Known about the structure:
The chain is mainly α and 374 residues long. The protein has one domain. 72% of the residues lie in helices and 0% in strands. It is built from 17 helices and no strands. It is globular. It starts with a helix and ends with a helix. 48% of the residues are buried.
Amino acid sequence: MRLPSCFxxxxxxxxxxxxxxxxxxxxxxxxxxxxxxxxxxxxHMLIPxxxxxxxxxxxxxxxxxxxxxxxxxxxxxxxxMGTYLNVSTLxxxxxxxxxxxxxxLMTLLICQGAAxxxxxxxxxxxxxxxLGMIAGxxxxxxxxxxxxxxxxxxxxxxQYLRLGLIVASTPILLQVILPPQTGQAGETEGAGPWHLVxxxxxAMGLITLASVAALGVLLxxxxxxxxxxxxGPMLLSAAVTVTGIAxxxxxxxxxxxxxxxxIGLDVGLRFSRQYxxxxxxxxxxxxxxxxxxxxxxxxLAWLLAAITRIPFGxxxxxxxxxxxxxxxxxxxxxxxxxxxISSVQGLRLFEMAFLxxxxxxxxxxxxxxxLRRT
Length: 374
Protein backbone atom coordinates (compact mmCIF):
# COMPACT_ATOMS: atom_id res chain seq x y z
CA MET A 1 0.00 0.00 0.00
CA ARG A 2 1.08 3.61 -0.48
CA LEU A 3 1.43 5.08 3.00
CA PRO A 4 1.10 8.75 3.97
CA SER A 5 4.30 10.70 3.41
CA CYS A 6 4.85 11.11 7.14
CA PHE A 7 5.20 7.32 7.42
CA UNK A 8 7.06 6.70 4.14
CA UNK A 9 9.89 8.99 5.11
CA UNK A 10 10.54 7.09 8.33
CA UNK A 11 11.43 3.88 6.52
CA UNK A 12 8.63 1.67 7.89
CA UNK A 13 6.80 1.19 4.59
CA UNK A 14 6.37 -2.53 5.02
CA UNK A 15 3.28 -4.67 4.80
CA UNK A 16 3.25 -5.19 8.55
CA UNK A 17 3.50 -1.46 9.20
CA UNK A 18 0.68 -0.87 6.74
CA UNK A 19 -1.61 -3.28 8.58
CA UNK A 20 -0.78 -1.57 11.89
CA UNK A 21 -1.50 1.87 10.45
CA UNK A 22 -4.88 0.80 9.04
CA UNK A 23 -5.75 -0.88 12.34
CA UNK A 24 -4.87 2.28 14.27
CA UNK A 25 -6.79 4.45 11.80
CA UNK A 26 -9.92 2.30 12.05
CA UNK A 27 -9.68 2.22 15.84
CA UNK A 28 -9.44 6.01 15.99
CA UNK A 29 -12.46 6.35 13.71
CA UNK A 30 -14.50 3.89 15.76
CA UNK A 31 -13.73 5.99 18.85
CA UNK A 32 -14.65 9.15 16.89
CA UNK A 33 -17.94 7.50 15.95
CA UNK A 34 -18.63 6.67 19.59
CA UNK A 35 -17.89 10.25 20.61
CA UNK A 36 -20.21 11.50 17.85
CA UNK A 37 -23.16 9.39 19.02
CA UNK A 38 -24.88 12.16 21.04
CA UNK A 39 -24.61 14.78 18.29
CA UNK A 40 -24.75 12.99 14.91
CA UNK A 41 -27.06 10.43 13.33
CA UNK A 42 -25.21 7.26 12.24
CA UNK A 43 -21.80 8.66 13.25
CA HIS A 44 -19.99 5.38 12.52
CA MET A 45 -20.84 5.91 8.84
CA LEU A 46 -20.71 9.70 8.55
CA ILE A 47 -17.48 10.47 10.39
CA PRO A 48 -15.28 7.89 8.59
CA UNK A 49 -16.78 8.88 5.23
CA UNK A 50 -16.03 12.57 5.76
CA UNK A 51 -12.57 11.92 7.17
CA UNK A 52 -11.79 9.52 4.34
CA UNK A 53 -12.92 12.05 1.74
CA UNK A 54 -10.73 14.76 3.27
CA UNK A 55 -7.70 12.45 3.41
CA UNK A 56 -8.24 11.34 -0.19
CA UNK A 57 -8.72 14.84 -1.60
CA UNK A 58 -5.72 16.24 0.28
CA UNK A 59 -3.57 13.30 -0.82
CA UNK A 60 -2.74 12.26 2.75
CA UNK A 61 -3.82 8.72 1.80
CA UNK A 62 -3.89 7.71 -1.84
CA UNK A 63 -5.00 4.11 -1.62
CA UNK A 64 -8.13 2.37 -0.45
CA UNK A 65 -7.99 -0.05 2.49
CA UNK A 66 -6.27 -3.41 1.80
CA UNK A 67 -8.30 -5.75 -0.40
CA UNK A 68 -8.64 -8.51 2.25
CA UNK A 69 -10.06 -5.95 4.68
CA UNK A 70 -12.56 -4.68 2.09
CA UNK A 71 -13.63 -8.22 1.15
CA UNK A 72 -14.06 -9.13 4.81
CA UNK A 73 -16.28 -6.09 5.40
CA UNK A 74 -18.34 -6.97 2.34
CA UNK A 75 -18.79 -10.54 3.56
CA UNK A 76 -19.83 -9.39 7.04
CA UNK A 77 -22.24 -6.88 5.52
CA UNK A 78 -23.68 -9.65 3.35
CA UNK A 79 -24.25 -11.81 6.44
CA UNK A 80 -25.91 -8.89 8.23
CA MET A 81 -28.19 -8.21 5.25
CA GLY A 82 -29.09 -11.86 4.92
CA THR A 83 -30.21 -12.13 8.54
CA TYR A 84 -32.77 -9.40 7.90
CA LEU A 85 -33.91 -10.63 4.46
CA ASN A 86 -37.24 -12.08 5.55
CA VAL A 87 -39.89 -11.96 2.83
CA SER A 88 -42.59 -13.14 5.26
CA THR A 89 -42.13 -9.87 7.15
CA LEU A 90 -43.45 -7.96 4.14
CA UNK A 91 -46.62 -10.04 4.00
CA UNK A 92 -47.14 -9.71 7.75
CA UNK A 93 -47.02 -5.92 7.50
CA UNK A 94 -49.31 -5.37 4.52
CA UNK A 95 -50.96 -8.74 3.91
CA UNK A 96 -49.25 -9.02 0.53
CA UNK A 97 -45.74 -8.81 -0.84
CA UNK A 98 -47.06 -7.37 -4.13
CA UNK A 99 -46.80 -3.64 -3.18
CA UNK A 100 -43.15 -4.06 -2.28
CA UNK A 101 -42.32 -5.91 -5.50
CA UNK A 102 -44.10 -3.20 -7.50
CA UNK A 103 -42.22 -0.51 -5.56
CA UNK A 104 -38.85 -2.06 -6.33
CA LEU A 105 -39.75 -2.44 -10.01
CA MET A 106 -40.85 1.20 -10.07
CA THR A 107 -37.46 2.13 -8.63
CA LEU A 108 -35.84 0.24 -11.49
CA LEU A 109 -37.89 2.27 -14.00
CA ILE A 110 -36.92 5.52 -12.25
CA CYS A 111 -33.25 4.55 -12.50
CA GLN A 112 -33.69 3.75 -16.18
CA GLY A 113 -35.05 7.26 -16.69
CA ALA A 114 -31.99 8.68 -14.95
CA ALA A 115 -29.75 6.49 -17.13
CA UNK A 116 -31.46 7.88 -20.25
CA UNK A 117 -30.73 11.41 -19.00
CA UNK A 118 -27.06 10.52 -18.45
CA UNK A 119 -26.81 9.18 -22.01
CA UNK A 120 -28.64 12.20 -23.44
CA UNK A 121 -26.85 14.98 -21.58
CA UNK A 122 -23.44 13.56 -20.64
CA UNK A 123 -22.64 11.37 -23.61
CA UNK A 124 -21.87 8.21 -21.63
CA UNK A 125 -22.80 4.89 -23.19
CA UNK A 126 -25.99 3.09 -22.22
CA UNK A 127 -24.35 0.24 -20.30
CA UNK A 128 -22.26 2.65 -18.21
CA UNK A 129 -25.27 4.88 -17.52
CA UNK A 130 -27.47 1.93 -16.53
CA LEU A 131 -24.94 0.52 -14.07
CA GLY A 132 -24.03 3.98 -12.79
CA MET A 133 -27.61 4.99 -12.04
CA ILE A 134 -28.92 1.65 -10.76
CA ALA A 135 -30.12 1.95 -7.15
CA GLY A 136 -28.63 -0.69 -4.90
CA UNK A 137 -25.70 -3.04 -5.18
CA UNK A 138 -23.02 -0.44 -5.91
CA UNK A 139 -20.25 -2.99 -5.40
CA UNK A 140 -22.02 -5.41 -7.73
CA UNK A 141 -22.48 -2.69 -10.35
CA UNK A 142 -18.80 -1.76 -10.31
CA UNK A 143 -17.68 -5.40 -10.26
CA UNK A 144 -19.80 -6.35 -13.28
CA UNK A 145 -18.91 -3.29 -15.40
CA UNK A 146 -16.09 -5.00 -17.29
CA UNK A 147 -18.23 -8.03 -18.16
CA UNK A 148 -20.96 -5.78 -19.58
CA UNK A 149 -18.71 -3.52 -21.71
CA UNK A 150 -19.25 -0.56 -19.39
CA UNK A 151 -16.69 1.98 -18.20
CA UNK A 152 -15.95 0.81 -14.66
CA UNK A 153 -14.36 4.13 -13.67
CA UNK A 154 -17.44 6.13 -14.64
CA UNK A 155 -19.75 3.54 -13.07
CA UNK A 156 -17.82 3.80 -9.80
CA UNK A 157 -17.95 7.59 -9.91
CA UNK A 158 -21.73 7.71 -10.37
CA GLN A 159 -22.40 4.93 -7.86
CA TYR A 160 -20.23 6.33 -5.10
CA LEU A 161 -21.27 9.90 -5.71
CA ARG A 162 -24.85 8.78 -5.05
CA LEU A 163 -23.78 6.60 -2.16
CA GLY A 164 -21.81 9.41 -0.56
CA LEU A 165 -24.73 11.83 -0.88
CA ILE A 166 -27.20 9.31 0.52
CA VAL A 167 -24.95 8.27 3.39
CA ALA A 168 -24.54 11.93 4.36
CA SER A 169 -28.09 13.11 3.76
CA THR A 170 -30.43 10.27 4.75
CA PRO A 171 -29.76 10.34 8.52
CA ILE A 172 -30.03 14.14 8.58
CA LEU A 173 -33.22 14.21 6.52
CA LEU A 174 -34.76 11.52 8.69
CA GLN A 175 -33.91 13.47 11.82
CA VAL A 176 -35.12 16.85 10.51
CA ILE A 177 -38.22 15.88 8.52
CA LEU A 178 -39.62 12.92 10.41
CA PRO A 179 -40.62 12.65 14.05
CA PRO A 180 -38.53 10.21 16.11
CA GLN A 181 -39.84 6.65 16.23
CA THR A 182 -39.70 4.47 19.30
CA GLY A 183 -40.34 0.88 20.14
CA GLN A 184 -40.14 -0.51 16.62
CA ALA A 185 -39.20 -4.09 15.94
CA GLY A 186 -35.66 -4.89 15.07
CA GLU A 187 -33.83 -2.65 17.53
CA THR A 188 -31.18 -4.36 19.55
CA GLU A 189 -30.96 -3.20 23.14
CA GLY A 190 -28.37 -3.61 25.78
CA ALA A 191 -25.46 -4.66 23.57
CA GLY A 192 -22.27 -3.91 25.47
CA PRO A 193 -19.14 -2.54 23.80
CA TRP A 194 -17.61 -6.03 23.50
CA HIS A 195 -20.83 -7.67 22.32
CA LEU A 196 -19.76 -8.83 18.86
CA VAL A 197 -22.76 -10.84 17.61
CA UNK A 198 -26.48 -10.58 18.20
CA UNK A 199 -26.97 -13.81 20.16
CA UNK A 200 -26.19 -14.62 23.78
CA UNK A 201 -23.61 -17.32 22.98
CA UNK A 202 -20.81 -15.12 21.64
CA ALA A 203 -18.34 -17.93 20.92
CA MET A 204 -20.81 -20.01 18.90
CA GLY A 205 -22.16 -16.89 17.21
CA LEU A 206 -18.69 -15.83 16.07
CA ILE A 207 -17.92 -19.33 14.77
CA THR A 208 -21.21 -19.38 12.86
CA LEU A 209 -20.57 -15.87 11.52
CA ALA A 210 -17.11 -16.80 10.25
CA SER A 211 -18.40 -20.03 8.70
CA VAL A 212 -21.35 -18.41 6.93
CA ALA A 213 -19.15 -15.56 5.65
CA ALA A 214 -16.41 -17.88 4.33
CA LEU A 215 -18.77 -20.43 2.80
CA GLY A 216 -20.88 -17.63 1.36
CA VAL A 217 -17.90 -16.15 -0.46
CA LEU A 218 -17.07 -19.57 -1.92
CA LEU A 219 -20.72 -20.01 -2.92
CA UNK A 220 -20.79 -16.60 -4.59
CA UNK A 221 -17.69 -17.41 -6.60
CA UNK A 222 -18.94 -20.87 -7.55
CA UNK A 223 -22.27 -19.40 -8.77
CA UNK A 224 -20.42 -16.54 -10.46
CA UNK A 225 -22.57 -13.96 -8.74
CA UNK A 226 -21.78 -10.27 -9.20
CA UNK A 227 -19.85 -9.10 -6.13
CA UNK A 228 -19.56 -12.65 -4.73
CA UNK A 229 -18.05 -11.45 -1.45
CA UNK A 230 -21.28 -9.59 -0.71
CA UNK A 231 -24.05 -11.58 -2.39
CA GLY A 232 -22.77 -15.06 -1.57
CA PRO A 233 -22.83 -14.51 2.22
CA MET A 234 -26.12 -12.66 1.86
CA LEU A 235 -27.79 -15.62 0.10
CA LEU A 236 -26.37 -18.18 2.51
CA SER A 237 -27.17 -16.08 5.59
CA ALA A 238 -30.76 -15.60 4.41
CA ALA A 239 -31.14 -19.35 3.81
CA VAL A 240 -29.69 -20.22 7.23
CA THR A 241 -31.95 -17.69 8.97
CA VAL A 242 -35.17 -18.56 7.15
CA THR A 243 -34.72 -22.31 7.64
CA GLY A 244 -33.87 -21.83 11.31
CA ILE A 245 -30.58 -23.70 11.06
CA ALA A 246 -28.83 -21.03 13.14
CA UNK A 247 -29.57 -17.72 14.82
CA UNK A 248 -27.71 -15.09 16.77
CA UNK A 249 -24.70 -14.69 14.45
CA UNK A 250 -25.37 -11.25 12.93
CA UNK A 251 -22.61 -8.68 13.60
CA UNK A 252 -23.48 -6.50 16.58
CA UNK A 253 -21.96 -4.10 19.09
CA UNK A 254 -18.31 -3.20 18.50
CA UNK A 255 -18.01 -5.51 15.48
CA UNK A 256 -20.97 -3.81 13.80
CA UNK A 257 -19.53 -0.37 14.58
CA UNK A 258 -16.22 -1.46 13.06
CA UNK A 259 -18.04 -2.81 10.00
CA UNK A 260 -19.88 0.46 9.35
CA UNK A 261 -16.67 2.41 10.02
CA UNK A 262 -14.82 0.34 7.46
CA ILE A 263 -17.51 0.81 4.82
CA GLY A 264 -17.79 4.55 5.40
CA LEU A 265 -14.02 4.97 5.16
CA ASP A 266 -13.88 2.85 1.99
CA VAL A 267 -16.48 5.08 0.31
CA GLY A 268 -14.79 8.31 1.38
CA LEU A 269 -11.36 7.24 0.13
CA ARG A 270 -12.72 6.73 -3.40
CA PHE A 271 -13.04 10.47 -3.95
CA SER A 272 -9.43 11.44 -4.64
CA ARG A 273 -8.54 14.80 -6.16
CA GLN A 274 -7.35 13.23 -9.43
CA TYR A 275 -10.42 11.02 -9.60
CA UNK A 276 -12.75 13.98 -9.22
CA UNK A 277 -10.88 16.04 -11.80
CA UNK A 278 -10.94 13.30 -14.43
CA UNK A 279 -14.70 12.86 -14.10
CA UNK A 280 -15.86 16.36 -13.25
CA UNK A 281 -17.70 16.74 -16.55
CA UNK A 282 -20.13 14.09 -15.34
CA UNK A 283 -20.73 15.80 -12.01
CA UNK A 284 -23.56 18.26 -12.90
CA UNK A 285 -25.72 15.69 -14.69
CA UNK A 286 -24.93 12.88 -12.25
CA UNK A 287 -25.74 15.13 -9.30
CA UNK A 288 -29.01 16.27 -10.87
CA UNK A 289 -30.00 12.69 -11.68
CA UNK A 290 -29.13 11.53 -8.16
CA UNK A 291 -31.29 14.23 -6.60
CA UNK A 292 -34.13 13.43 -9.02
CA UNK A 293 -33.95 9.70 -8.26
CA UNK A 294 -33.91 10.38 -4.51
CA UNK A 295 -36.93 12.69 -4.77
CA UNK A 296 -38.84 10.17 -6.89
CA UNK A 297 -38.07 7.41 -4.39
CA UNK A 298 -39.30 9.63 -1.55
CA UNK A 299 -42.59 10.10 -3.44
CA LEU A 300 -42.71 6.34 -3.95
CA ALA A 301 -42.20 5.89 -0.19
CA TRP A 302 -45.20 8.13 0.51
CA LEU A 303 -47.33 6.06 -1.87
CA LEU A 304 -46.10 2.79 -0.39
CA ALA A 305 -46.86 4.01 3.14
CA ALA A 306 -50.38 5.02 2.10
CA ILE A 307 -51.09 1.64 0.48
CA THR A 308 -49.56 -0.62 3.13
CA ARG A 309 -50.23 1.62 6.17
CA ILE A 310 -46.67 1.29 7.40
CA PRO A 311 -45.03 4.36 9.00
CA PHE A 312 -43.65 6.81 6.46
CA GLY A 313 -40.27 6.75 8.21
CA UNK A 314 -39.96 3.01 7.59
CA UNK A 315 -41.12 3.37 3.98
CA UNK A 316 -38.67 6.25 3.43
CA UNK A 317 -35.73 4.19 4.67
CA UNK A 318 -36.88 1.10 2.80
CA UNK A 319 -37.01 2.92 -0.56
CA UNK A 320 -33.89 5.09 -0.19
CA UNK A 321 -32.00 4.53 -3.47
CA UNK A 322 -28.95 2.63 -2.39
CA UNK A 323 -26.61 2.66 0.56
CA UNK A 324 -28.21 -0.27 2.38
CA UNK A 325 -25.40 -0.23 4.93
CA UNK A 326 -26.08 3.42 5.75
CA UNK A 327 -29.81 2.72 5.83
CA UNK A 328 -29.34 -0.09 8.36
CA UNK A 329 -27.18 2.12 10.57
CA UNK A 330 -29.69 4.97 10.33
CA UNK A 331 -32.68 2.69 10.92
CA UNK A 332 -31.01 1.25 14.01
CA UNK A 333 -30.35 4.67 15.53
CA UNK A 334 -33.91 5.82 14.65
CA UNK A 335 -35.53 2.74 16.28
CA UNK A 336 -37.10 1.87 12.92
CA UNK A 337 -38.35 -1.52 11.74
CA UNK A 338 -35.06 -3.13 10.71
CA UNK A 339 -36.49 -6.44 9.42
CA UNK A 340 -38.96 -4.62 7.17
CA ILE A 341 -36.45 -2.06 5.88
CA SER A 342 -33.70 -4.58 5.20
CA SER A 343 -36.15 -6.97 3.53
CA VAL A 344 -37.35 -4.30 1.09
CA GLN A 345 -33.79 -3.09 0.47
CA GLY A 346 -32.60 -6.69 0.04
CA LEU A 347 -35.45 -7.48 -2.33
CA ARG A 348 -34.50 -4.49 -4.46
CA LEU A 349 -30.83 -5.44 -4.30
CA PHE A 350 -31.63 -8.86 -5.76
CA GLU A 351 -33.83 -7.34 -8.47
CA MET A 352 -31.25 -4.74 -9.44
CA ALA A 353 -28.34 -7.18 -9.38
CA PHE A 354 -30.06 -9.65 -11.71
CA LEU A 355 -32.20 -7.36 -13.89
CA UNK A 356 -29.60 -4.68 -14.67
CA UNK A 357 -27.29 -7.02 -16.64
CA UNK A 358 -30.33 -8.39 -18.47
CA UNK A 359 -31.47 -4.89 -19.47
CA UNK A 360 -27.97 -4.00 -20.65
CA UNK A 361 -27.69 -7.15 -22.76
CA UNK A 362 -31.13 -6.55 -24.32
CA UNK A 363 -30.21 -2.94 -25.11
CA UNK A 364 -26.85 -4.02 -26.52
CA UNK A 365 -28.49 -6.60 -28.80
CA UNK A 366 -31.01 -4.05 -30.07
CA UNK A 367 -28.23 -1.57 -30.79
CA UNK A 368 -26.18 -4.21 -32.61
CA UNK A 369 -29.24 -5.20 -34.61
CA UNK A 370 -29.87 -1.59 -35.53
CA LEU A 371 -26.26 -1.14 -36.66
CA ARG A 372 -26.48 -4.20 -38.90
CA ARG A 373 -29.62 -2.86 -40.57
CA THR A 374 -27.96 0.47 -41.30
